[in-house]
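So, can you check this record?

>
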Amino acid sequence: MENTKWKRTLKLLCVISAIAMVALPWFSFNPKVTGYYWGMDSLLYAWVPLIIIALYLFQWKTNKIGSILLAEAALFSLLGIYVYAFLYWPCSITGDAPNMGVSLSAALPTFWIGFAVMLCTWMAFQAYFIRQCVRK
């Protein structure tokens, strides 16, 4: 019974994370001039990890170490997409090297909300994986 509660919570967190990643604007210097960089602009990089996580939650055998490691790598790569976009998005506009100050000034609150939700999802998966491994 408790395992189904965990699975239901993880499914809900993954859906919220995917929606936050795709539907929220992430960066903008000035929306009137440059427009917004949306999370859906990173979907090209994120669709494979999202499919792997969906397969893990809805279909795969969750007690196999291979599927656990694959889902772990997929979640870690989604966090990597956030970090990569944060560091390198201004480079496409300014043409300069990555600059933390420019990235911080261009990041919208919705980027930080999406990143926090993804981080919470990653931590919930860690707790679930630990429970799965300890139970064996």
Notes: The helical segments are 2-23, 43-58, 65-94, 100-106, 109-135. The CA atoms of residues 41 and 103 lie 17 Å apart. The first helix runs from residue 2 to 23. The radius of gyration is 17 Å.
